[in-house]
Amino acid sequence: MSLIFNRYTQILIDILIIVSSFILAYILRFDGLPQTQELKHMLFQLPYVLTLTLISYLVFSTYQRIWRYTSLNDIKAFLASHLSVAVVLLVARLGLPDYYHYARVPISIIIINFTMVFMASVGVRALRRILNERDERSKNRNGLKVAGKKIILIGAGRAGTLVAREMSARPDLNMELVAFIDDNPSKKRRSLSGIKIYGPLETLPEVVAKTEADEIIITIASVSGQQMQRIKKVCDTTGLPVKILPGMYELIDGSVNVNRIRNVEPEDLLGRESVELDMEAIKNDLHQKRVMVTGAGGSIGCEMCRQVCRFEPESLILVEQAENNLFDIEGELRKSYPNQCIEAIIADIVDQPRMETIYKKFKPAVVINAAAHKHVPLMENNPGEAIKNNIFGSKCVADLASKYKASKFIMISTDKAVNPSSIMGTSKRIAEIYIQSLNNHSETEFIAVRFGNVLGSAGSVIPIFKKQIKAGGPVTVTDPEMKRYFMSIPEASQLVLQAASLGVGGEIFILNMGEPVKILTLAEDIIRFSGLKPYEDIEILFTGTRPGEKLFEELSVEKENIIKTKHDKIFVGQFTGVKNGELVKSLEELDKLKDECDREQIRKALKRLVPEANFMN
After folding, report:
1. What is the pLDDT of residues 301-327, one digit of tens each?
2. Choosing from 289, 395, 408, 416, which is the catalytic residue?
3. 570-573 and 562-564 as β-strands: parallel, antiparallel, unpaired?
4. What is the pLDDT of residue 253?
């Protein structure tokens, strides 16, 4: 097919279509070959119509499109192209004086020609797609490719429609869509992309038997945890592999690609609503700007880098102290964004001379500080390291951002900074206090964004539960009443960028984490997800709270005067601040203690600056 339909052949075919359509329009208009005078007019006008149409094809980039995958957007481009030609001809018809009558195309000819040339030009490309798909199917029948899997899609909404279209347009995927399942009664017995819609969900086993399906894919853009558990339970009765299209909050550009389809994970059982983003506002912050991400190799840092790349910054500077983590994210980004300028820098944010060298060389306009020690029990036992990294590391990169006049500095904070009960949480609260103080006398806009636990991050509860289940148990839960807020890594990262676009400096943004989840319930659900029964196949062991841990995390305090922003998932807390002299004195005291291991001394020093801290254990 590529030999038959190369670009130059397509141009020749288009010339033939344009010429023949225009001549045929005259023949239809005059009920046969036009008389001598009209024939002269037609022959005079034809080169201009041909030239004008080919120029419109170039203007609307019709030859840049891959017509083997013809879509509605491609057809829109052709409609615009031919409409523009018709408009020019109509203006000439109405605007030229009678003296130029030989150049004035009759209105009836314009209408007939537009209809015929549009239908023919689009039709030949649709035929190209049909022939291409026939060739692909022929290859499958001849055994040159593996026979396609029969797929059932759960969800006949927007995401399901887009997946169905891509499957249809790409026979190379070897995926044959055989049915939709949807609970919406108005869709029952109807069809989408030529495929029948069945429902409700409980009919899935009989649809699987009827269609002899090989795999099930969940294509619902936004689904609650309770709905996902119901879907998974019904899917499990079929014995087929079950996969899922990531929620729309993971598809920031709204594009759907079957290559993103993945296995269903325990995290999906929690469910999250899709996130609506003001893409233009985020783009204004990041597009063609030099952006630096510290802690770029961590779970949040990696995702921040992925999201930033989508907005095409001038350059992205990755700062990370862990060599292997930096190597991995650099390789991934270079593969996914080959045209993006990426600088991978091994550095520790507490190393002031090294960080100053980086700032001096790259002069980042936007700094995202995701570098931090985050594990509460570890920081209780290593308090000096929490102070070094979370307070003085943050201070170092913030001071340099101000010195080198970055336009915006965004610090990733945590719900554990609210009425902190741990050294880790208190250290993050002090970092918030510091950048708010710095914002008062700097050209740089300093912003902090707080959120709770992220699903699937290194060392978080779900990966730990998975390992424990794989080892045969027991699954360890701190307390039967312990609750935590959860958010996906992509969702949190996107909302951080959105919050930053809203900020003018000095704010602590608080992300709406939804409802808190009981850790015991989560553990039981993950055990069931693994095909096992809690308390029978896998034991659950309660270990008691560890140093610094709360049973319930908070996301705000009253004195921060929480107010809404224009985004329903983002709030802002206006904090009264700390006197600069008091802040300087406390930081000097902490600086002297940072190499000490005396937890009680460090706690006393932290509490003088954060009186609401209530250390536990």
Report:
1. 998 999 999 899 999 999 999 999 999
2. 416
3. antiparallel
4. 47
**Burial grade of 536 (CB within 10 A; 0-12, 13-18, 19 or more):** exposed
Whether the Cβ atoms of residue 256 and residue 163 lie closer than 8 Å to each other: yes
Range of the domain at 499: 287-454+487-515+556-609
Task: Indicate whether 363 and 401 sit together in one domain.
Answer: yes
Contact by Cβ (8 Å): 541, 325: no
Q: Where are the alpha helices (DSSP H) in 299-454?
A: 299-309, 323-336, 352-362, 376-381, 383-386, 394-403, 423-439
Q: What angle do CA 384, 389, 390 make, to 5 degrees?
A: 100
* Residue 40 and residue 161 in one domain: no
Are residues 73 and 114 located together in one domain of the fold? yes
Q: Is 579 a catalytic residue?
A: no
- Collect all residues with Cβ–Cβ distance below 8 Å to 141 and sequence separation of at least 6: none
Query: pLDDT tens digits, residue range 117-147?
Result: 888 888 887 777 667 666 655 555 454 444 5
Q: What is the pLDDT of residues 547-562, one digit of tens each?
A: 666 676 665 544 456 7
419-425-428-433 Cα dihedral, nearest 10 degrees:
20
The residue among 378, 453, 369 whose CA lies nearest residue 409 is 369
Region of poorest pLDDT, from 52-66, 364-378, 442-456, 564-578: 564-578
Positive or negative: CA dihedral 57, 60, 66, 71: negative
Q: What is the CATH number of the domain that holds 588?
A: 3.40.50.720
Domain final residue, candidates 232, 264, 296:
264
Q: Same structural domain for residues 356 and 215?
A: no
Does any domain span residue 364?
yes
Give the chain's domain count.
Answer: 3
Same domain, 20 and 96: yes
Choose one of 214, 233, 264: the last residue of a domain: 264
